[in-house]
Specification:
The protein is globular. Helices cover 22% and strands 34% of the residues. A hairpin with a 2-residue loop joins strand 11 and strand 12 (247-249). By secondary structure, it is α/β, with parallel strands linked by helices. The chain has helices at 3-12, 14-24, 36-43, 46-58, 78-81, 98-108, 147-154; strands spanning 66-70, 87-91, 114-117, 130-135, 158-165, 168-177, 186-188, 197-198, 203-209, 217-224, 230-244, 247-249, 259-268, 274-281, 290-295.
Length: 297
């Protein structure tokens, strides 16, 4: 197939691709992880992996540190710090990856400083304090994945001056109008033509400080002033991640992509304040999140 033929095929499938991406990023409880294609999507995302590598480099590549990484998958991040660390506790709960991980650690020659833990990261008890806890269990708003819960549990094993990677997540919302088909309630933005009609500027919903976050459910009312008159039938969600001071990740199609979530249709007027009610819980499902509009009196 020539490049032109491939591009022609891609154009013919633009619309359905937004749902294929959603399916590829949906957690599969039957095998404790994601479809195999998702690991490939992740590993080939140089912007995503590069942001974590930059955070490691900021901390001198974690040289001579004792590190814990939760959810190591196919070692996409792990292989970048293993040559430098003193010791690494590596946690993975997907049994389908066990043989690959064992073989790859051995092939890389790091078995002598790695402790592999095949278990749920929320249950793991580390035998010693660590300098860094790393986890990339993130989803938009942390609504689908257990990033918050995992760090709530594992941060107890941090040394007094230990670091989490990432450290903070800022979630924002905009009013918008988007196209939905079938029973789909949300989808990530894969191509620019999937972008919704944005009807307001972004407003901060909440900031997750992963060193301190205790709440698992967010309920909040936000005042939004529409820029445009029309019908809002969705909210446009973005998450901005601080991996380390000055090292940020603002989403790609493989991780925390900007996402539209369906809401009840509401007529809105430019410059007329609207109250947005938000309610969702970390580590459940974005489809369970509640966003509703109320005209501000």
């Amino acid at each position: 197939m020539t490049d032109f033929e491939f591009y022609h095929q891609l154009i013919d499938n633009y619309d359905k691709e937004k749902y294929n991406l959603l399916k590829a990023q949906t957690f599969d409880p039957n095998h404790f992880g994601f479809p195999p294609i998702y690991y490939k999507i992740m590993e080939t995302d140089t912007k995503r992996v590069g942001a974590f590598v930059a955070a490691f480099e900021k901390h001198n590549n974690l040289k001579d540190a004792v590190v814990c990484e939760a959810g190591i998958g196919n070692l996409a991040l792990t292989r970048h710090f293993l040559p430098y660390v003193k010791k690494a506790y590596l946690i993975e709960n997907n049994p389908d990856l066990k043989d690959y991980i064992i073989d790859e650690i051995e092939r890389l020659g790091f078995a002598d400083k790695v402790v592999l833990i095949f278990d749920d990261a929320l249950k793991v008890e580390l035998p010693e304090p660590v300098d860094f806890v790393i986890a990339e269990m993130m989803s938009i708003f942390c609504a689908n994945e257990f990033q918050v819960q995992v760090f709530q549990h594992l941060r107890q094993f941090l040394k007094p001056k230990g670091k989490l990677i990432p450290e903070k997540i800022v979630n924002t919302v905009q009013l918008c109008n988007a196209d939905f088909e079938g029973d789909f309630k949300h989808y990530p933005i894969n191509f620019s033509r999937h972008l919704p009609e944005e009807m307001s500027l972004p407003e901060e919903v909440n900031t997750i400080n992963l060193y301190k976050e205790e709440n698992l459910t967010i309920q909040k009312e936000i005042d939004i002033q529409p820029l445009l008159t029309g019908t809002a039938n969705a909210v446009f969600l973005r998450s901005y991640v601080r991996l380390s001071e000055g090292i940020n990740f603002t989403g790609t199609d493989s991780l925390m992509p900007p996402t539209v979530l369906k809401i009840d249709e509401s007529k809105i007027e430019a410059n007329k304040l609207i109250k947005l009610h938000t309610g969702y819980s970390y580590g459940t499902s974005l489809d369970e999140a509640i966003f509703s509009l109320e005209e501000k009196v």
